[in-house]
Amino acid sequence: MRDLDRITFDPRIMGGRACIRGMRITVALVLNLLANGMTPLEIVQEYTPLELEDVYQALGFGARLANDRVEIVELEPA
Known about the structure:
Elements: E1 7-8, E2 19-20, H1 27-35, H2 40-46, H3 52-66
Antiparallel strand pairs: 1-2
Helix pairs in contact: 1-3
């Protein structure tokens, strides 16, 4: 799997959310654009600072997060 060296976290940029190379372009934005039908090439054409590798690393980051395990705790009625 690719190293995710293009994904950065800085509390001064977008509140510390996962961003692409320290820019004000979040991983969530890139993933939402893909989910809504844009191709990686269309994204890098629309957001000119981005490179194809940025889009692929955003996908890799999303895949890693989706692989996390979530435990559901059922609460008893009050």
